[in-house]
# Entry
Amino acid sequence: IKKPKQANCWVNGALASSLKHGQLSWVHVCTLLFGNLANNLLLRPLLLQAGAKGQPVVFLMTDNQIVKEQFLVYINDLLSTGIVSDLFTPEDKDTFCNAVRNEVKATGMLDSNDNCWDFFINKVRRYLHVVLCFSPVGDKFRIRARQFPALVNCTQLDWFHGWPAEALLSVATRFLADVPDVNEELRISMAQYMAQAHQYVSEASQQYLQSFRRYNYTTPKSYLELIALYKLLLARKRAELQAAKERLQNGVEKIAQASAQVADLQVALREEQIIVEEKKAQTDDLIVSIGKEKAVVDEAVEAGREDEEAASRLQNEVQAFQEECTKDLAVGG
# Structure
């Protein structure tokens, strides 16, 4: 598949589904598809509306909605033949044929089952429009185009090139408008940076293609993802800074509380120091008083010691006199 420079094949489904007179008849978005029963329930109303009622209808599907590659088999048949024959029972075919039988008669043809079936298929081809929105990024698009050739051979490829600088700036401004706590001047600078960054990547992708012959797609989706990633990282970083700010505020509050408690303790300590000084002065006075009383006691003790010595001398004299008297009595007897 030839891929042009800086292109992507995402289709604006609402715009592509605008049919005659610019009116949107109906857009059917393909969602989760599992098994033939679900496919039958999905495609049968579309074929009835387009083939039986002759109402323009658009079948819109993106590659992200393809949960089973088997469904592309039906899309390939629908694009190449206008119908998925093995998807419906004979009763379903009879229902489709009976729905257009009167129209077949009105054209002057024989209302046989084959004619009715061909008439029904032609109406489906005329009124059923299939819009496939596939991205060229990766290998899936190339592999699917190789496996299901009707995706390329039976469709008209609309390659939508990258957005111009004005569009990039407008989109960035729109999606950054809901970012809180940002002044207008900074918001404009952010939008300009987003647009310039996307353009720089596009230019680098061109250089990469010329140097290595490999594609690096920068699609509008990647630009929107860039803006979404920036908003996510900004919100995450703000949350981290808010948490750090709250931790810092809590720490400052704890320090303030500790400082207040220290100040209260210092006041209490000064009051206690005054009481201690008073007690110390009283103790010093008591020590002085005790010292004086001790001096008096020491003098009294000294005087008592002298009396004790005099009494001891007198006792010795009395004992000596007694011993002398005892000796004299012993001699006289």
Summary: The chain has ten helices and five strands. The beta strands are 7-8, 27-29, 57-62, 128-133, 160-161. The two ends are 168 Å apart (CA to CA).
